[in-house]
Design brief:
Strand content: 25-35%
Number of strands: 24
Radius of gyration: 23 Å
Shape: elongated
């Protein structure tokens, strides 16, 4: 009888704790076919990690520019300068991350964007014509990370709309305008361009069981200027819930698998990229390899945050002893215990553009029409 009463007391206490945790966080962190304390209990073979809201359809504002005379549509997710981030956030009503690390982008890995400070009125950032970009995905000079160049007409009586870098350079050489090359770097991944776009998923109903691969875009609406993408749930370095989208990657094979643009210049960013740990075996889950969700080395508000991530693969030496890991510290502890090996993916050359978002941003812009 005494044991039975203790069991009832334990169950009641566990229920109360579960209710309390559910009230504190946005949504329940995990449900599994076992109970566990964070990173401490051994999982049964074949265990599943069921993260609630593991995949969320999110509407992100599109911006429009010109590239070699053609329209190009892109998104703004991160910028190296606080003032510019605030300006873009206000303009598009979508939180843009500040990522000072982007200012360290090597010159050879920078695309170029030209923003007008005067001239033809339009829907550009300063109320004038839309910006001009130097390249699109598939071009040798394409990079999602663009250096901002400010374009100013010297004589506004002779202004006209310019649609290519060549036209801008010709006007500069003839003395019609001036260029101010800033060190502001913005993450502007291309979504749709002349002759192409990011891959659109065939499976458009999103749930926590949706496959990670096969495309990251649900819809591109250039009339409403919205792209609907899949935001994936993961953890920050201390176990805080984050979401991220995937826009481009290198090499080509993983980029094709995820359904994103191949951006070879991303490889040049490996030296400033932050680690993103994905799992190759162990607990089944919503990660790209079909196992538990990944862990990033920075939160969107951290000083070392960048949307550019260098992928490393975690592999359990004995998958039957796998446990759920939620922090970078958990990974280090398992490495020291000899239970986990961590290897830079593809010799350290697998780099992915994954802008991170706070859950509040994701749910503010959630598109429920795509929920399963």
């Amino acid at each position: 009888m005494r044991n039975r009463n203790l069991n009832r007391l334990f169950i009641a206490s566990a229920t109360a704790i579960t209710i309390l945790v559910t009230m504190i966080v946005i949504s329940p962190l995990t449900t599994q076919n076992r109970t566990f304390a964070q990173g401490t209990e051994v999982a049964a073979p074949g265990s599943d990690l069921k993260l609630s809201r593991a995949s969320v359809p999110i509407d992100i504002p599109l911006a429009k520019g010109y590239e070699n005379g053609h329209e190009i549509f892109f998104i703004a997710t991160d910028v190296s300068d606080q003032k510019t981030a605030d300006q873009i956030t206000k303009m598009i009503n979508f939180t843009v991350n500040v990522a000072p690390v982007l200012s360290q982008t090597p010159d050879s890995a920078r695309g170029q964007a030209f923003v007008f400070t005067n001239g033809v009125p339009g829907k550009g950032p300063n109320g004038f014509q839309i910006p001009v970009l130097n390249a699109k995905p598939g071009d040798e000079g394409y990079s999602p990370l663009v250096q901002i160049n400010m374009v100013t007409w010297k004589n506004e009586s002779s202004v006209k709309e310019l649609k290519s870098v060549q036209e801008i350079m010709t006007a500069q050489q003839s003395g019609q305008l001036s260029l101010d090359k800033t060190n502001i770097i913005a993450n502007h991944p291309a979504v749709k361009w002349d002759g192409g776009s990011m891959k659109i998923r065939e499976d458009k109903k999103i749930s926590s069981d949706s496959k990670y691969v096969g495309g990251q875009v649900l819809n591109i609406d250039t009339d409403k200027m919205i792209v609907t993408m899949v935001a994936h749930r993961g953890w920050g370095p201390e176990g805080k819930t984050i979401y991220y989208i995937v826009t481009d990657a290198t090499p080509d094979m993983p980029a094709a698998m995820m359904g994103v643009s191949n951006a070879p210049n991303d490889e040049k960013l490996a030296t400033t990229a932050v680690d993103l740990f994905q799992f190759m075996n162990g607990i089944n889950g919503s990660g790209p390899m079909g196992f538990q969700a990944g862990i990033g080395g920075a939160n969107p508000t951290d000083k070392n945050y960048t949307p550019i991530w260098k992928i490393s693969f975690n592999e359990w030496k004995d998958p039957s002893k796998a446990r759920v890991l939620e922090t970078v510290g958990d990974i280090v502890a398992m490495q020291k215990a000899g239970m986990l090996t961590t290897t830079p993916a593809m010799g350290g050359k697998h780099v992915v553009n994954c802008p991170f978002f706070d859950p509040a941003t994701v749910f503010e812009h959630e598109n429920k029409a795509y929920l399963s």
